[in-house]
Amino acid sequence: MINRPRHRYSVLIVSVVIIILGISSSLLIQTDFGNVATKEIDLLTKDGVKIHSTLQVPYVASASNPKPGVVVIHGVYQSKEWLRAFSIELARRGFVTLTIDAAGHGNSGYSLVDSDRGGAAALEYLNSLPYVSKLGIVGHSMGAGIAIQALNLSNLVVDSLVFVGGGSQDMGEWANNTYHKNLLVTVGKYDELFDIPELYTSLASTFGTGSIINPGQLYGNFNDGSARKLIIGQTNHLFETIDPQIISETIDWLNESLFDTPNENWISKGNLMYPFWIVGGVISCFGIILSIFPLMIILIDLPFFKDLTNNSASEYRVTSKGYWIYGAIYASISLGSFLPALIFSSFIPFPQNMGASIGMWLLGTAIIALGVLILINRFHLKKNNPQISWSDFGIDEKKEIIVLMLGKSTLIALLIILWLYCWTLSADVFLALDFSAFLPMFNDLPIDPPRLQIIPLYLIFIVPFFFVEGMWLMGVLRSNPEGTWIKKQINQTGKAIGIKSGIYVIIILIQFVFGLVLGKAFISGYIGFLLLFFWEFVLFFIITTCITCWSYFLTKRIYISAILNSLIFSWVLASILTLAT
């Protein structure tokens, strides 16, 4: 019999306690300890597109005591949760905030025609509320462009604008003549999409300063709408949405612009609570991920699933030298297929932008890695061990057994996904707390727009990848560590994570460490922008690698992990990528 870790029920209970503690702490911050009401609402654009939003209303706002309202709009490949730090800090200072999923993003719908993508509808909705006075708008990256489009489409007066990492280039005439209102421009020093010297030049006419702009200096005045300021944060494009300097300057700017009299609910701009909201959310997500592992043991030990365990598995182990050679080969295949897949997939129609690129990357990696594995097995491994078979890589050789294993493994994977989804859906529906703010996979995918229906399409690309990866990580690269059972598993899992994610961590470090030295992003432009998403890839690669190793330790097969990881990764992609228009 294969050893099973004890205390599985205790670990599951601890996981649930962690989830509840994390949810509770984030909920307290999000509601400002009961001072802010938070609810999910759906708006409609003029084209009939559903715009999913979160409305936060401080209890001090009323028809007799109206407060300023602020629309908050995220950037591309993001959702409203990415900018909740802004809305949380504004709401606890007396602002009514509406944070939207732009059309094609998050849980909003999409249109085949060019629309305002939700910005104008959000402004109209806020303006209709009897407890809202003046209006402001915050847009990050693409959201800044949506904000400008909304301002041009709407007849409403918006008295304060904040553009974060976007919307600030070549807009002098628009800002000074078409829409002469108080404007704060913020951007990260290491923003991959901006060249700071060029930014100064492009903003010169907007600020009316000639060619010299001093970051942090106030130009113009708030009374006539001519106030201008540029803030350069010590961050990059992705993390501008949680940068303390950018957030504190934003809330201070909106306070100066939108309150005619001193704000009795004002809290010092340095007193920020959103980091605790993030910590609580991360803790809850950690608890959810942790719960997968004891739940897997409990399910596998049920009588119906007992035959998933391969008690006669081979004891093949790779040598220390072979481990690093094979590991380098696999890592090179994974990284080397990224750009070719990106180029090739541009000709493939797909319901989500970048979906074909990532799908072809994973499928291409699987095809190449499987071919290399067959060659290694035939010309190297069998020479040293003629008895080696596919069962040594976690795959059975008899078709009837494979069909049985696939069926029962799929059932276990679906039960675990159902467990994860129930936590996600419950938190969003009952508490207006979306876990996707902390881990993008935890989004309660709606049937309309058709994000949920896209998952089977992703599985075509992703299932082969995780089966092949399982054969590499727990087959070719299965080592022989010493020590107790748990030490062996930690050793093997740590090595597998290093092989799978190490190269991407190195790329991230090069991008940002060199950026610190150079004073700007090491690789800028579109490629530099794409590298930002390696952060998310690394995170999910670590999670899926842990699942791969754990599943193999329990069953000596890779079926459960391959199917479960495929469902998780498909969930991730369906959640975060934009719907094609």
Strand count, sense and barrel status of the largest sheet are:
8 strands, mixed
Shape: elongated
Question: How many helices?
Answer: 17
Q: Please indicate the count of domains.
A: 2
Distance between the termini: 54 Å
Q: Find the structural class using helix and strand composition.
A: alpha/beta
Give the strand order, joined by hyphens, for the main sheet: 1-2-4-3-5-6-7-8
Order of helices and strands: HEEEHEHEHEHEHEHHHHHHHHHHH
Query: Strand-residue fraction?
Result: 5-15%
Keywords summarizing the entry:
581 residues, Rossmann fold, 8 strands, alpha/beta
Report on the structure:
The protein has two domains: 36-272, Alpha/Beta hydrolase fold, catalytic domain (Rossmann fold), CATH 3.40.50.1820; 315-576, no CATH class. Strand 5 (132-140), helix 4 (142-153) and strand 6 (160-164) form a beta-alpha-beta unit. It is built from 17 helices and eight strands. 53% of the residues lie in helices and 10% in strands. Helix 3 packs across helix 4, helix 8 packs antiparallel against helix 12 and helix 8 packs parallel to helix 16. The chain starts with 7 loop residues before the first helix and ends in a 5-residue tail after the last helix. The relative contact order is 0.12. The radius of gyration is 26 Å and the shape is elongated. The protein is of the alpha/beta class.
